[in-house]
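Review this today:
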Amino acid sequence: MGDTPAATSERADVVVVGARCAGAATAIPLVEAGRRVVVLDAAGLPSDTLSTHLLWPAGVAELRRLGALDAVAELGAPPLTEAFAEGAGFGIASAFPAVDGIDYALCVRRTGLDAALARTAAAAGADVRPRSRVHALLWDGERCAGVRYADADGRFREIRARLVVGADGRRSTVAREVGAERPFHLVPSGRECYFAYWRDRADAPRHIAAQWRDGADLGTAFPCDGGLLLSLVQPPVSDSPRGPGEAERRYAAAIDRLPALARRLEGCERVGRVRSATGIASYFRASAGPGWALPGDAGHFKDPVTAQGIRDALHYGRLLGAAAARVLDDPAALDAALREWERRRITECREIFHWTNRLARGEAMRPLEIELYRSATADPDLAALTAGIFSRTRRPGELQTPRRAVRLAAGAVRHQRDRLPAVLTDIARELRQAVADRVVSRTTLRGTVPPAAPAATGAAHPPAVPGEHHV
């Protein structure tokens, strides 16, 4: 940084790097507690970002807790009051479980969602500064003490603060600068992600959030704002060479392999290009240290197959802001609060992390999965339990009890006799996976994490997610 121009300096209680879901959610309770918060974002706002953006009822409830739901509702996304999932010929329809009185999901394009959250944070009292790119952190010994950034006019500035929050996504500058970029637990996905918007039909069922599985492919159709439909496909990872037009080809081919999704898109008109994320991996990073914390994808990421990212960014961002607001004036108490916040996120997210990674394997439906779908078509309670897992009102462990496992295994044997070797192999595999997940939860994800490596100015940092790239 020796050639960097001299920077002007100011002070704040908290600097939040990133003004989107996690950043705005962190800032709002802090300013409501009377703290001075500066929120920096490298992008102009409003602007788009790569994201699959379904909010289950738990995510919508978070918007209301933050005071942003009215602004988001004005964007016009239809309430999604019914969940539909189909696999192996079995279709399951269910209502969403209510979370604090919210019994619907929303699919909102990120341009409008993020802008509404940033406006809500600014209205609450946060100083939101778009086009402000952080270049380095400031340190007081081993304690993070602020940021150095270039403002919208390219001038370098410094902000000294008691807490620096890195809400700047998977490629987090803050995570890199504190030495936390390399995850302490990482699980590569077996799926790739491609999505596009479609102008929806006038007679379309715009109250249904739908998912279909056929073979190893998975596809969705989520009505969203602007009269559009978000259709996402997650085919298995491909080793084919990347090149111009590959995203378009992969997207179209996956839709062709999902006849029910293709029928849902009949009469719809594609709007804009296909967007993609490949080389995806779910992970946990060390997310708290002296004077710094990493909410949102900067600290923890799950494959988009279960659409949990926005809810968790809002929820744990809000919890972080509320916890820090009370103890900002006491460094030791602040560090303890940050560690407890980190521990809470790990322990609360590890079950859904394991559940997500199973769905992200990129494999054809296995015998026990088929039996789950078959059983849920005749058992409304089982269908409601499955919907509740996605909305975080129920735990995967409630579905994976020994009694239910025995029932599913017996049902699979009874209904799939012609595939008995595959059924037995699947049962054995699930038992091994359950043991492996429990071991990981009790060791790697036990709620405490190794400290981040000491920050080293100018040091080379490993990639956050090896091989990650977008087409």
Q: What stands out?
A: The longest helix spans residues 331-359. The first strand starts at residue 8 and ends at 11. The chain has 14 helices and 22 strands.
